[in-house]
Amino acid sequence: MLVSVIIPCYNVEEYIEECIASVLAQSHTETEIICVDNNSSDRTAAILQEQELKHPGKVRALKELKKGASAARNKGLSVAAGEWIQFLDADDLLLPEKIKHQLGIIAAEPVHGFIAAACIRQTVDGKQTTVAIKTKDPFKSLYTTKLGNTCANLFNAAQLKSIGGWNENIRSSQESDLMFRLLRNGAVIADDNVPLTVIRERASGQISQGDPKKNWMQYIALRIEIIDYLKTNRKEYFEKEKDFYYQNLFSQVRTLAKYDLESAALIFKNDFEKGFAPRSGSGWSVYALLFKLFGFKNAERLKRIFSS
User: Fold this and answer.
1) Mind spelling out the 3-state secondary structure of the chain?
2) pLDDT value, residue 193
3) Which bin fits 261, alpha (ψ -120 to 50), beta or left (φ > 0)?
4) What's the pLDDT score for residue 110?
5) Which CATH superfamily is domain 3-209 in?
6) Are 118 and 130 in contact (CB under 8 A)?
7) What mean pLDDT do residues 39-48 have?
8) Which residues have CB under 8 Å from 191's CB, separation 6+?
9) CA dist., res. 59 & res. 226, Å (int)
């Protein structure tokens, strides 16, 4: 079975050769490697050309002028011939059994959406931590970012194309948005808690190091979209589980409040049900009392005063 490995590349001259080598070292050899340069200003494009010449018929170098990893991934997807798609960021690595292992899961289970997989996160200083996933309730797992990630997961090409690929208009939460649209489209998923992908932290140049306010706004906007979908399409389920969704959303809105209290207060006013109150469990009892007495915005202000 052919697997297309799509690698968006932007100023990754220090990482890209090692990344490609990790794909070439896969025990499952039926792969095509599609590298898409996205306006790099370093030697990335030249290295990709060198790799294409070094590995003819195996490595393909493309260009995408529209900025953003999502546009680069869509460019790769548009020419991919594989039945399954492995997205891989240029600074990350696949361990040798990754693709073979996940194709084994596909052979054993009725998967036609994606495999949600665990990964290994590696800090700049080399410290590694395993990040597990949960798939018992896919919507809950997605909501709490426990449904794998772009590079650890393996995606069905036909399903990706049926939803139009990646959303090129958002700058963060792209993978959550993609998986949400796949779930809405009826994707059947499988779980894989064997970590065979290494996600490497970089000193600079990653989206998590960008504008935190914009990132949290997008993160929250997607969670509200998930709630709205469940309210409309899975009413009984949502009625049983709505406290879980709103309590989690409230925590995220509180995080946004650190950067923009007015925006956070507006989201709370518009998107929470009347009568909502945060749980008063461990570490929350004082805040819950402030919230009950003074409301969200003033509780946040008072909490800051007491914490300073």
Assistant:
1) CCEEEEEEECCCCCCHHHHHHHHHCCCCCCEEEEEEECCCCCCHHHHHHHHHHHCCCCEEEEECCCCCHHHHHHHHHHHCCCCEEEECCCCCEECCCHHHHHHHHHHHCCCCCEEEECEEEECCCCCEEEECCCCCCHHHHHHCCCCCCCCCCEEEHHHHHHCCCCCCCCCCCHHHHHHHHHHHCCCCEEEECCCCEEEECCCCCCHHHCCHHHHHHHHHHHHHHHHHHHHHHCHHHHHHHHHHHHHHHHHHHHHHHCCCHHHHHHHHHHHCCCCCCCCCCCCCHHHHHHHHHHHHHHHHHHHHHHHC
2) 96
3) alpha
4) 83
5) Spore Coat Polysaccharide Biosynthesis Protein SpsA; Chain A (3.90.550.10)
6) yes
7) 98
8) 115, 116, 117, 133, 134, 135
9) 38
- The span from the CA of 127 to the CA of 192, in Å, is 22
Q: What pLDDT sits at residue 206?
A: 47
CA–CA separation, 171 vs 66, rounded Å? 13
List, for residues 239-268, the tens digit of each pLDDT value. Answer: 999 999 999 999 999 999 999 999 999 999
pLDDT digits (tens, 9 = 90+) for 134-183: 889 999 999 999 999 999 999 999 999 999 999 999 999 999 999 999 99
Q: What amino acid occupies position 275?
A: G
103 and 84 Cβ atoms separated by less than 8 Å = yes
Token pair of 36 as six digits: 């898409």
Per the DSSP assignment, residues forming a β-bridge with 85 are: 4, 155
Domain with CATH 3.90.550.10 in the chain: 3-209
Virtual torsion, Cα 2, 35, 204, 198, nearest 10 deg: 20
Which among 238, 300, 245 has a CA at the least distance from the CA of 272? 245
pLDDT over 90 for what percent of the chain?
89
Beta-bridge partners for 128: 122
Distances (CA, A) of 266 to 44, 253, 281: 43, 10, 25
